[in-house]
Structures are given as C-alpha cells and as structure tokens.
Amino acid sequence: MLDLLVIGGLGVDIRAQVPVLPLPAADSLAVPPIELRIGNTGAGVALAAHALGLRVGLVDVLGADPAGDVVRAALARTSVRTVLVDAPAGTRRSVNMVDPAGRRMSLYDPRPWSGPPPFAEAELTALVREAAHVHVSIMDWARAALPALRAGLADGVSLSTDLHDWDGENDYHRPFADAADLVFVSDVRLGDRAGKVAAGLAPRTVLVTSGAAGSTLHAPDTPPVRVPATTPPAPVVDTNGAGDAFAAGLIAARLRGAGPHDAARYAARVAATACTLDGMEYPAGLLPRD
C-alpha cells in the first residue's frame, strides 16, 4: 500500500547561480560551479513527501542516459518505489538560473514522448488501486492516461494535479484539471483573473499559489481564504521545488486528517523550509512533520 503515487515529472535540474535576474546582455558570465541533479516537478513532490514520512511510489518514463543515471541514483538513496520505462528521447531537463535571493528562471526541455503509451491501462489501474492519494504531473504521456488513472481510484481516494503557470486558457491543461479533485495553480499568468479561474474549477478544491505572497484556498461551498506564507527558518537558498514541497505538504496533511485550511497552513511551513536547502534531496528531519 502506498500513501502517495506520483505520476510523471522526473528529470534533472542544471542549476546555475547568477548574480541577478534577468541577466544583462553579455557573451559570457563566470558563475559558481554548475550542478546537475535530480529535479522537475514529480521528483519534487515525491522527494518532499518521502521526507515527510509518506510511503511514495513514482511512475514515469526516463532516459537511459547520464541524466537518467543521476535521477536513478538519487531515488536509490530513498525508499521511493519506482516503476520506470525507458524514454527514447532521453531524460527531461531544466536549466535553472537562481539569483542570490533564491528567485529562479527556468528553461525547460520536455523531451516529448512519442510512440505507443508507455504503460498499459491495466498496469496503471493496478498501481493506482494501491494508493491513498494520486498526484499527476502534467506530462504528455500522462495526459492520455488520465481516464485510466481516474478509473483506478479506490473509493474515497483523491487525485491532484499542479497546473503550474497555466494561463486559464491553454487547452493542454484542461484535462488534468477536469480529472482532479485537488488543483494547484500559480497566479503568475492568471493575475487578477485567478479567483475567477479557480471558481470555474469548482467543485474542486483549488490552491492558487503566489510564491512569497502565500496562497489562496478555494474550497467547495466556502469563501476563498488567504493563507500567508511562512517565514523560512533559515536563509533562503533555492526556491526550486518550493511549490512541489507545498503540494506534498498539503497532501500529507490531508492524508493525516487535517482540514483544507489547516493543511494549507502546514504546506506553507513545508514550502518555506524547503527553500532553505540547495536541491530537493531533503535530509532527515529538515521538513516539519507536524
């Protein structure tokens, strides 16, 4: 039995520390050592949930390449259960430029999946049946698998997704929102339309995240509630993965019986603490469990 099954979202992050964002125009810029490590959204949710004590499974495609080896090695250092299929196009990767305040600019290489579905519907259904919660990353192959994932949910089990910087109009994201009970979405492109977009996703529970400004909880049949961000317990080092840690914290709290508002406040603490670590491989005891 799994507490959380994460669908998709494995990759590597190529992290570069830069003096300022946006970067000034120049032919070159000397920076501290550039690192290659596990990253991307599914890894962020899975590793944070694992650090919070959940039993986690992860299903995805992954390249048989050096970048994929970095991901496999990182996951082998945990008890996360993986079901992986080789990705002919290679491992997804992001180039993340991070400034001294921890803000980032990410260049994303999705390595699109091509060919027949990587997992049979029966295999996905069986995996979903073992989980108390399912979180689906907005990966290309997972989009076609949404009906099978939804059909495999046991009674009382919820499905969540993170739409990231959705603009409220891009049709690619809509099936993920339609399949979910719990939706995370950034307000970076929604702006003052965020409330209207969240209301349009009812009766789903929607968390509109605003980075250091906190988040807004849109729960069924209740007015929106602002959830302030939490002050990090140490200096901010890296905000990569903060949103994924927020999602993991909220899922963990809900699985432990917390209501939506209390779960969101706890998730804010988890996300704030995640920002004090360089990377997503959280050491034991770093993220708050209560």
TrEMBL record:
Protein name as catalogued: Carbohydrate kinase family protein
Domain of life (superkingdom): Bacteria
Pfam families tied to this protein: PfkB
PROSITE patterns according to UniProt: PFKB_KINASES_2
UniProt domain Carbohydrate kinase PfkB: residue ranges: 4-279
Alphabetic keyword roster: Kinase, Transferase
One GO molecular-function entry: kinase activity
Family affiliation: Belongs to the carbohydrate kinase PfkB family.
Residues forming coiled coils: none
InterPro entries: Carboh/pur_kinase_PfkB_CS, PfkB_Carbo_kinase, PfkB_dom, Ribokinase-like
